[in-house]
Design goal:
- The protein contains 3 helices and 12 strands.
- By secondary structure, the protein is of the alpha+beta class.
- Strand 1 and strand 2 form a beta hairpin.
- The structure holds 2-acetamido-2-deoxy-beta-D-glucopyranose.
- The site of 2-acetamido-2-deoxy-beta-D-glucopyranose has 5 residues, from helix 2.
Length: about 300
């Protein structure tokens, strides 16, 4: 919230990218894991200290928050944040890093998902964040912190790793299903979905609780940007989430959203979503505990975007 003027900046040509199967390359040559680890560490330090200059931006690099281009020194990195938890993963093929940042005990709580594309030498050419705080979709940093830090996103042994394509396919099946509820989604067991403060894994931690009911109308989610790390079976997808934000016109391509997936054996095991809203609760959630359709928060079949009160 607090970024109400920003939506018009969302690129409409992004629609053309809907359904593109392969991620675009940041650095054709790729880069080392060490380079990307250093980059993510620098980013977390920069945010902790409120010193954006610690991020090694290349000349002419793009920096944006919630799909709005801005000066990195004027955004959320302008001030220090007490970071309670962060989790990063690395795409050496594309030379890109993804970091999940949770600041729950800061006076201004945030959940920030950040992706950085870099040159082989580790200069950031594109950096974009989905910056969520109070008023964004089901926002609750305290709950988000509790659930994310309890999950295992650790290294997967070499003989059990999925290919990049398999990881991407499992994750994309989830959002492709929003456009066609008949499309199958490979969810593993157990599987839990975290959206803001809502976690589908609480009722039965051993269950496959990731399946989502259909939206009231099919949604085409475009402008997808990927970070894929085979070593931990993880993929981040930034995209435009149509429909969910009632503050936007019906034909709008969508509000900025980030989904991250942990995939094991070609199946989704954890899904995290962070989605920003132009209007409190995207004009749908009716307050704490109100949520997503029939099941409510934690409901295994609750479809985000289904108004809690009809
Ligand atoms: C914290 O997470 C654990 C494990 O996921 C869960 O059982 C518990 O209910 C959560 N607590 C709160 C307050 O949400």
């Amino acid at each position: 919230m607090g970024r109400e003027n920003s939506r018009s900046a969302i690129s409409f040509c992004s629609i053309a990218l809907a359904g593109v199967a392969l991620a675009a390359s940041a650095s054709a040559a790729g880069c080392t894991r060490e380079t990307l680890t250093k980059l993510a560490d620098s980013y977390v330090k920069a945010q902790t200290e409120g010193k954006s200059s610690l991020v090694p931006l290349a000349r002419g690099a793009y920096y944006g928050e919630n799909d709005v281009a801005m000066d990195i020194a004027k955004g959320v990195l302008a001030g220090p944040l007490k970071i309670d938890f962060s989790r990063s993963f690395y795409d050496t093929t594309q030379c890109a890093a993804f970091t999940e940042v949770v600041a729950a005990t800061d006076p201004h709580p945030y959940v920030i998902h950040t992706r950085m594309e870099a040159s082989e030498g580790g200069q950031v050419t594109r950096m974009e964040s989905v910056v969520a705080d109070q008023g964004d979709w089901l926002f609750g940093a305290t709950e988000y912190l509790n659930f994310t830090k309890a999950e295992n996103w650790g290294e997967i042994s070499k003989d059990k790793r999925d290919t990049r394509a398999a990881i991407q396919a499992a994750a994309e099946a989830y959002i492709n299903n929003w456009g066609d509820p008949a499309l199958p989604v490979p969810h593993g067991t157990p599987c839990a979905r975290l959206e803001g403060r809502a976690y589908t894994g609480t009722r039965d931690p051993a269950a496959q609780a990731c399946t989502m009911g259909a939206f009231p109308r099919p949604l085409a989610t475009g402008h997808r940007r990927f970070v894929i790390d085979e070593t931990v079976g993880a993929v981040s997808i930034f995209h435009d989430f149509p429909f969910i934000d009632a503050g936007l016109p019906a034909d709008h391509p969508g509000t900025p959203a980030s989904q991250m997936f942990r995939v094991e054996g070609g199946k989704n095991r954890y899904i995290h979503e962070s989605t920003v809203c132009t209007t409190p609760g995207c004009g749908r959630a009716a307050g704490p505990g109100a949520g997503k359709g029939k099941g409510g928060p934690g409901g295994a079949n609750g479809a985000p975007g289904t108004p809690a009160k009809q």
